[in-house]
Structures are given as structure tokens and as C-alpha cells.
Amino acid sequence: MSHLFPNYARDSIDLVDGSGSYVYDQQGNRYLDFMSGIAVSNLGHKHPVVTKALADQADKIWHSSNLYSSNLQESLAEKLTAEKDYLAFFCNSGTEANEAAIKLARKATGRPNILSFEQSFHGRTYGALSATGQPALQEGFFPIVEGFNYLPYNQLEPLKEHLNENVAAVMLEVIQGEGGIVPAEEKWLQAVERLCKENGSLLIIDEIQTGLGRTGTFFAFEQYQIEPDIITIAKALANGIPVGAMLGKATLGTAFGPGSHGTTFGGNNLAMNVANAVVSEIGQPNFLNSVVEKGNFLMEALCSMKEHSSKVLDIRGKGLMVGIELDTPETLQWAIQELKKQNLLAIKAGKNVLRLLPPLTISQEELADGITIIHSVLNQS
Ligand SMILES: *Cc1c(COP(=O)(O)O)cnc(C)c1O
């Protein structure tokens, strides 16, 4: 009998080891990892640089406290803001990064309301849950935080109707992840940015799943020529060590003065040393180019499959964040189990989308192996 709350629908396998693009269960079965712990292990498992960063710091000081200065936080902030005029705040998870973003937006603008989108996912704590446009996730947890409204994604008219002098911020994912791998349309996102500016509302971009190179650029929004006011990241930032960050325009700094917001663990030395190593790795010449190339290779292979499989309705995504929309939720559950039988781990998104998130470090050969397995499963009748 399990002593855990049943709040997750868990598969029976227990992953106890990993190396590169492979993970191993307790029985020693090897799986090709096409989910990266939900876009966390972007550099694969046991990456030598990342492992060394953790071990080096483990031998020094694990935790000091935000009552003292931190060179590790400063150097990570400098890398993340890349000479742009942003400041960083470090926390421990995605949902916390979004909490910080929501609080900063309200305080900096003096306005109460946040607009987000249907099928979005921003996290499980009350502020982030209140921003999440999925009624099923809020059910039973009312009252949620006031001042949140959900609009249809990729549509401009509803946004125009709701933008007024009470709107502190518009918050969105560049590619909706949990919602089903739905990319923003370029024209729409650029119009959202312009409308926010005109209205004095901040644009918060949740890059928690799309960030850290997942889509072929460091942040996915870079592919849209926009400049968010606030950016949130987490998941892959320390490749599995819990960490989150909020980046905001330096002009917002005065709204977060001493004592306004904080966390005990946030910016912890272990997480910071690992995150510094992760961000440096992603910044290596050609790293992001290789993600683009592998993404193109994956997308082309899957699109040719679409023509041969009656089960595949659509294929969407960017870089190594790809969704295969299947005809029914039952097909999706069946496909995930069949892939597992062939030693490939992939997960769901939305109701009927098979989500592929291989490590960004995956080799061409491993990627091709995965594609062969996916072909063999989805082309079965
Ligand atoms: C996973 C995720 C979150 C929440 O992150 P946690 O670390 O689970 O709190 C928020 N936004 C997006 C887009 C995510 O994918």
C-alpha cells in the first residue's frame, strides 16, 4: 500500500538511474528518454559538467541566506540577462517564479487585474493557479485569487475588449505546454506586446517549459522579436536541482524594495552553481544551432509519418518541444503504453497530444532510434 497522497496518476516504473538520453528502472530496463522529466533534464542525465558543478559546491557551502551577498546569484543573473536591462529574482520552482511575477506586476503598476489565456498552465500555488486557464485544475479549491480573467489564445478581439486601466499584466506561454503544445502565432504575439505597451500593462512571458534552449533559442520569445517586461523560468534551469527565476525590466526594480518579497531557499548555493554550469553549457557555440537542426530533423520525420497514419491529426512545436495530436484520448493512452513497451518514454499534453521533449543533448542517432519507435507504434492499425 502506498503512503503517498494519490494526487499523481503514476506509472508503475521507478526510474533509479540515468545516463545521457537513457534512463533505467529498478529492474534494469533501459528507456530512451523523450520526456526529460517534463522538460527538466535538458542536458540529459549525469552530464559531466553539471554533475561536477553539484559535487564542487557540495564540498563548499550549500546554503548561506539572502541576508548576505551572493556572487553565484550575481553571475547567474548576469548570464541570464545577457547585457539587457533586466534584474533577476531567484526562487525554487516555476509556480514561485510566477507568484513573484504576479506580485511584481501588481505592485509596479498599482493595478489589480491579470489577463491570461484558456488552456494555459502557470502552476499550482494560489496565484499561479488563479492565472491558469483550466477550470478542472481549480475545481474544489475556491475561493481562488481575485482579479484573473482567461481569454481565447491566439485571438486579438477578446484581448482588446478586456485591456483597460485596471490590467496590471497579460501573462502567457509562447508555446502552451501542458495545454497541448500550442504555439503562439507571430502576428498575434507582436500585437499583444503592442497593445500592452499602449495600455500601460506589463507583458509576462512564462518560459518555464519553453526556456533554456528547448525551442532552439535560449528563450522561445526571441523567435517573435518581442521584449517582455517579465520572464519566468524554472524547470531546466538547474537540470533537476529545484530552482526558478523571475527576470524583470530594471525599471521595475523600485517596486521590489528590501523586504517586499523573499524566500529562504531561493538562490541557494547548490542550485546557483549548477544553474551557472547549465546556462554556460547552453551558451556554448553551436549548442542552440544543434537544437534547431535536431528539431528540424524530428519535425520532418514526424510530418512524413502524418501522411501515413490515420491516428495523427496534427504535429506542432518548435525545436525539441513537439506535440503529436492524436485522434482520441484513448489512442494517446494506448500510444504512451506501446512506446513504453518499446522502451521509449513520452508523455501527454492536453487531452490527446503526445508530447515529445527529448534531452537537448540527444544524438542524431538516438533521435533517429526514437523516431523509428514512434513510427512503428503510430503506424500500427
Ligand atoms: C511546469 C510549469 C509551471 C510550474 O512549474 P513548477 O515548477 O511545477 O511549479 C509553470 N508554467 C509552465 C509553462 C510550466 O510548464
From TrEMBL:
Pathway: Amino-acid biosynthesis; L-arginine biosynthesis; N(2)-acetyl-L-ornithine from L-glutamate: step 4/4. GO terms for biological process: L-arginine biosynthetic process. GO terms for cellular component: cytoplasm. The modification N6-(pyridoxal phosphate)lysine is found at K235. InterPro entries: AcOrn/SuccOrn_fam, Aminotrans_3, Aminotrans_3_PPA_site, Class-III_PLP-dep_AT, PyrdxlP-dep_Trfase, PyrdxlP-dep_Trfase_major, PyrdxlP-dep_Trfase_small. Keywords: Amino-acid biosynthesis, Aminotransferase, Arginine biosynthesis, Cytoplasm, Pyridoxal phosphate, Transferase. Belongs to the class-III pyridoxal-phosphate-dependent aminotransferase family. ArgD subfamily. This is Acetylornithine aminotransferase. The keyword S-adenosyl-L-methionine does not apply. May also have succinyldiaminopimelate aminotransferase activity, thus carrying out the corresponding step in lysine biosynthesis. Its cofactor is pyridoxal 5'-phosphate. Pyridoxal 5'-phosphate binds at G94, T95, F121, D206, E207, I208, Q209, T264. The keyword Transferase applies. It catalyses: N(2)-acetyl-L-ornithine + 2-oxoglutarate = N-acetyl-L-glutamate 5-semialdehyde + L-glutamate. The gene is argD. GO terms for molecular function: identical protein binding; N2-acetyl-L-ornithine:2-oxoglutarate 5-aminotransferase activity; pyridoxal phosphate binding. Signal peptide: none annotated. It is found in: Cytoplasm. Binds 1 pyridoxal phosphate per subunit. Homodimer. N(2)-acetyl-L-ornithine binds at R124, T263. Its EC number is 2.6.1.11.
